[in-house]
Amino acid sequence: MAGTRALPRLARALGRGVPTPRRNPFALGYLALLLGTTLFARFADPGLVQRLHQASSSDAHNLFVHPVRALLFSGLWVAGPVWLPYFWAFLFTVAPLERRIGGLRAAGVLATGHVGATLLSQAVVVAAVAAGRAPAADLDALDIGVSYGVLTSLGALAGLLPPPWRAAVLAGAALFVGRQALADGDLVTAVGHPAALAAGVALWPFLRRRDRARPARPRGALVLADAQR
Q: Key word Lyase present in the record (predicted)?
C-alpha cells in the first residue's frame, strides 16, 4: 500500500519538474535563444558563421580588445553543432535552480559561472603562453558555449538538495569534469570546468540564505527532494 501511495506523489513531483513558460521563463527563453543560434550556424553561410564565432569568442585576445562583447556573445552559442544535449543540461540544472530561487537569481548564477570561469581559464592560458608551456595560437583559440554557466548552476543546485542527493550530484559532476579534462587534454576545459563547478559551490551560503527567506513552498519544489521523501 505504501508503494501504491508513493507512485502518485512521485508522478506529481515529476510533473512539477517539467519546465513550463510560467515556472521557467529564463531557462526556456535561453534554450530558445540557443536553438535559434544553433539553427543559424547550421544553415547560414559558413564563412559568416565563422566570422561571428570568432567575434563572439571569449579567447584571451578578444577579452583584451573587446571584453564585454566577448563575455556576452560567447554565451549565445553552443559548442558544437548539436543543441539537444543543452536541452537536457538545462532541464536538470538551470530549470530546477530557477524554480527554487527565481529567474533573476538563476540568471545571476549562470552569468557568474560563465564570466568567472572564462576569465580564470583564459588567465591561465596567458600565463602558460608567457611561460612557453603553450603555443601563442592558444590566445586566439575559439572559446564559445554555456558549459561554464551550466556547471555553476549544477554546483549551486546541489547546495539546495538534501545531503544524500547533494553528495551524489557533486560526485557525479566531479567525475564528469575529471574524465572530460583527461580525455580532451585542453587547458581551457581543464581549468574552466572545475572552476565553474566550484563557483556554484561557493554560492551556497548566499543561495541558502535567500532560500530560507522565501515563504514556505509546497512540498516537491524540487523533483529530487520529492523523490527522496
A: no
